[in-house]
# Entry
Amino acid sequence: PGKIEILDSASQWGGLPSASILEAINKLYIITNDQKYLDFAKYLAESGGSKYGNQVEQAIANTTLPYQWGSPKAYELTSYFHGLLGYYNLSGDSKYKTAAVNYAYDLLKSEVTVTGGVGCKVEEFNYGVREQASPSYNGARLETCATVTLLRFFYDVYLSTGDTVFVDSMERTLYNQLISAVDTNDNHEQVFTSYFS
# Structure
């Protein structure tokens, strides 16, 4: 009471950036065993991730793809679903595992490009498997931050499901997106040559 709701604390993507801290809150609970962190994780999971449509319900329904859910920001959406999978491990509430696993398969079907990257429209999902070859879009593609988040998420989905399709995708992503973005010529002050790989 008297505090700002989590989805009202960010002006972009219906509050998704704020909800995307779920994985970190899960880890705080694991480290401290303090109930307030588990309660906050539950609150974040139950928020649905965005005011522009409940991302959890849409993933469970599995009738549309992530780019159609109203908050197609690649990094934050994947981070949120990674947090949902972790919250399932803490709470045992299987709907969150269902949502996360459905989301992971949806990414493979609609967003993971031939090189393994995501975020084919700057930092957003936009049916990347189709749009990756579109000559009509010439902006930045395949955000490196989303690539790293995808690798971490797919690793945990593999551990949760045992489906090696996620390991195969991780291998493609690692070699074609992440390693290829490393600056080997010392032209930049950071490890990666570009924000976009």
Q: What stands out?
A: Residues 74-91 form the longest helix (18 residues). The CA atoms of residues 74 and 124 lie 5 Å apart. The chain has nine helices and no strands.
